[in-house]
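## retry 2 of 3
previous attempt timed out at serialization; input unchanged, resubmitting
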Amino acid sequence: MNGVLDYGVTFFMYLFFEDGTQKKYVLNVEDQDGMNALLVDTDNSMQGYRISKELTSELRGVIYGGES
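## retry succeeded, writing output
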């Protein structure tokens, strides 16, 4: 997704690597069906990645419970 992104933060996601480095992302997953999730690297907040509806549904099930 190119351009200026207008989004709120639902979750921060931290990745920790074996070499001691880490990355911080914004992960937005709505608790209702029909919307794609959004992943944004906080080091480059002008670049976002839309997550497919299928994967969003799986993430929603993991995060909020219920069927995916």
